[in-house]
């Protein structure tokens, strides 16, 4: 599901087509040409299904509409991926998932988050083309491995309610103890960053994107520490210049080995702890 990602969508889809059996696209009321790009470039690609456009207020569960329409195409034990348009996998998902134990239904990512730094800003002033139209994937070099979320779930042919983040899984939804690695390019160049902030600031009253518009965002970005996820003061009308990160706080991508810094990610509990947690969530009526 994408909104106003015309600058990077083509490149991310081309990368995903190398490993995905099928990609389902939802446009969330884009106004920048994303919808047109979907249809013009990928409308006739056999491995891509374009669900259509959704104009409802954003929530992660909107993806359920495409899942419930197309889930009959999946076989038992296939995997579903929640792919964002600015994510590129380091590990080949097909090879990685082939080694996941049969009792596990969920795989979390280790997100190598690339940031726009003062060094990138200097280069951008000279040659902005190095950061536009997906070229940022090659140009951005400073990152922190500081985020982890569920990215794959095993298909169980269950319904997905829009109020849930994922389709209903098979209890107790055990998480594989190893992370799959990906690169994340959410902050790419000044105009794109500003547009991203403006879109998210518009949803501040709906408690969406709190991580994006917190007042102390820059203070939480450092490759040498775990992100403090405590919700602080929210502030709209933020400026792209506040997203320029000090490169000395980050790691440099010099054809590195992309070592996962597990101490800075949300921990994956052992199976017993996961089962106990799932029991509590089930009693409370919550889902993955």
Give a concise summary.
Helices cover 24% and strands 15% of the residues. With 288 residues, it is an alpha+beta fold.
Shape: globular
Helical coverage, percent range: 10-25%
Biggest sheet record: 7 strands, mixed
**Tally of extended strands?**
9
Written as H for each helix and E for each strand, in order along the chain, the element string is HEHEHEEHEHHEEEHEH
SS-derived structural category: alpha+beta
From the alpha carbons, calculate the radius of gyration and give it in angstroms.
Answer: 19 Å
Name the beta content range: 15-25%
| pLDDT averaged over residues | 92
Q: Which regions have little confidence, pLDDT < 50, spanning 5+ residues? A: none
Total helical segments: 8
> Alpha-carbon distance between the termini?
19 Å
Notes on the protein architecture:
The structure is a single chain. The chain has 288 residues and is α+β, with helices and mostly antiparallel strands. It has a domain at 85-284. The chain is 24% helix and 15% strand. The strands form two sheets. Strands 3, 4, 5, 6, 7, 8 and 9 form a seven-stranded mixed sheet that branches. Strands 1-2 form a two-stranded parallel sheet. Helix 2 (34-42) links the parallel strand 1 and strand 2 (48-53). The two termini are 19 Å apart.
């Amino acid at each position: 599901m994408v909104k106003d990602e015309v600058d990077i969508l083509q490149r991310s889809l081309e990368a995903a087509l190398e490993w995905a059996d099928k990609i389902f696209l939802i446009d969330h009321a884009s106004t920048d040409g994303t919808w047109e790009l979907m249809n013009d470039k990928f409308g006739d690609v056999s491995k891509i299904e374009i669900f259509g456009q959704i104009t409802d207020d954003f929530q992660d569960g909107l993806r359920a509409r495409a899942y419930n329409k197309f889930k009959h195409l999946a076989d038992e034990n296939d995997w579903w991926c929640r792919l964002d348009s600015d994510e590129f996998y380091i590990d080949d998902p097909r090879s990685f998932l082939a080694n996941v134990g049969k009792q596990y239904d969920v795989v979390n990512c280790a997100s190598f988050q690339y940031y726009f730094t003062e060094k990138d800003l200097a280069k951008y002033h000279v040659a902005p083309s190095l950061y536009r139209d997906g070229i940022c994937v090659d140009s951005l070099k400073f990152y922190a491995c500081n985020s982890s979320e569920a990215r794959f779930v095993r298909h169980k042919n269950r319904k997905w309610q829009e109020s849930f983040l994922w389709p209903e899984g098979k209890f107790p939804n055990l998480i594989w103890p190893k992370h799959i690695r990906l690169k994340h390019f959410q902050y790419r160049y000044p105009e794109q960053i500003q547009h991203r902030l403006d879109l998210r600031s518009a949803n501040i009253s709906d408690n969406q994107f709190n991580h994006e518009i917190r007042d102390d965002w820059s203070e939480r970005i450092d490759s040498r520490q775990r992100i403090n996820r405590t919700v602080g003061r929210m502030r709209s009308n933020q400026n792209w210049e506040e997203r320029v990160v000090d490169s000395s706080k980050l790691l440099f991508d010099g054809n590195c080995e992309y070592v996962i810094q597990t101490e800075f990610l949300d921990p994956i509990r052992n199976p017993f702890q996961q089962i106990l947690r799932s029991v509590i969530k089930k009693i409370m009526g919550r889902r993955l």
